[in-house]
Amino acid sequence: MHTTVVDVPERGRFEIRIGEKVVGLASYHVENGTMTLPHTEVDPGLGGRGLGTALVAGVLDAARERGLHVLPYCSFVRHHIQRHPELVDLVAEADRPHFGLATADR
Fold it and tell me: What per-residue confidence (pLDDT) applies to 47?
């Protein structure tokens, strides 16, 4: 299963694809150096294969490469950051308490 995470800025989303087939997406909006992440979804028939995790990892890698902070309104993104404390710095320090990340970096 060859998967890729692709930014589709004209649609305001990242897509995870198996071959050419889109099997999941993460919507986003960038403004003033911050990427807002309100929603992710993966084809429910493909659940449990790590596609959501791969998608979120790709999105957060892109945010880091672009020097952006993130606002993880999507609970899946937020939980991913909580499980990977090395990613907490992607959320601005002032925003961390709002997302329950105030102590995740300690």
Answer: 86
